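Example record

The entry below shows one chain as it appears in the dataset: sequence first, then structure tokens.
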Amino acid sequence: MNMNRGEFYKRVLPIFRPECLRNKNAIVVGVGSGGGRVATELGRLGVGLILIDLPGEVLEEHNILRHELGYPSLGKLKTEELAKHIHRLNPETAIECISLDVVAHKREFRDIVEAWKPELVLACTDNEPSRHLLSEVGVQRHVCVIGAAAYTGGIGGEVWISRPGAPCYGCITAHQQKSDTRPKTQSTIDYTDLDLPELRSTCALNLDIAQIALIQTRVALNFLLNGQVDLLGLPEKANLIVFANRRLAGHFERPLQAETFHIPRQSDCLTCGNHSPEEIDLEAERILQNVKQR
């Protein structure tokens, strides 16, 4: 169908000029319940998208309760079905779909970032290795990476920001572990624990996940608008937002409240310190070899 841009965008024109988004690209890694919403909200505004998910990642029936997609997409690739969904909202949005395990194929992902030169990478995955990898590639390619995670039970979640030249995700999570600046660390799911797959996939309502995903999207949109308008009012160096979906004694004392933090760079960080990509790869290989020999 022919799209009338003036009519389509008229409700947001008083806020910002939407045409400034049409030539900008964002890579969304992970298009599950959170990533699907992030991609949809950016895509409907015309941001170009590269959607990446694991090979063979299809919509299953238990996904539907919390996903942008519904029964017509059952058994089909999430990336391709999400692209169709976004095109129904904005036919002009440029979208590419890629099946890739970014952890297993790190160099291929680096090549994608180099080829597309996105303004942003959105980390919407549910495991620590992928988050660290995405942040690492962002540091190496001077691309901002914004990630998010919901806490167990959906009580809240966090959004982290790794800007070029600023602390990486590794610095942020290491500082949280050392100084307990993550107020709800004990309430988060340990995604490295393979005994928790069912808890991981059933522990939050769609509205809990959506709340955190929309904050992630707002941070991303604020970055893409690059000063045209401030949709957040975040402190300049804030790189962690912790949000309470609801009150839970001992965890969150007030519902629907956000706290922001500026987490400093770790002096010995291999990712965002003064190390070359080759040095990082060699150190990672050395660590893996030591683990194998134990």
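Notes for this example: The two ends are 61 Å apart (CA to CA). The beta strands are 25-29, 48-53, 95-99, 120-123, 144-150, 156-162, 240-244, 257-261.
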